[in-house]
Amino acid sequence: MKYETKDNFLILTEKSLILKLRSLGAGIEEGDETKITFLEAAYFAERGVLPISKDELLELASRTDKLYKEKFLVIKYLRDHGYIVRPSLDGTPYLRLHRKGYRPGEDKTYYLIEVVKKDWTASSDSLAAPLETAGKLRKELAIAIVGDDKEPKFLKFARLNFE
User: Fold this and answer.
1) Name one GO biological process term (predicted).
2) CATH level 2 (architecture), domain 67-163
């Protein structure tokens, strides 16, 4: 498999892998290449789709993301349950969740997910920025709390209008 790393992405040029990832709703095609985040690539490496070490990809992700383990577990949990979830490509720390049955580009992002550790405490300060970002993007916000049992717990926040 031919690949290179650039910024926070694995760049793939092998056509069969590009087509496979497209069918799974992963990666971003740019010309003859596809770039995929290290966290997404680690999931597909674990599933046997990409012939590269999951641990190597997680090591690359750990260089720029303190919550890489927790985000990987959330991606794995949601993907295993049939959802397409991808890290934001705009440099924000959120994951973007698409509705079941829709691939990126077919439908808009449904939720922004902020991943937090098990010792996270909710406060107006800790929720202000994620709620503001979700509001600007017209998305609902979910907080994914990753604890010892490795299965994330989700808290959903939504906009409310009083008419």
Assistant:
1) tRNA splicing, via endonucleolytic cleavage and ligation
2) 3-Layer(aba) Sandwich (3.40)
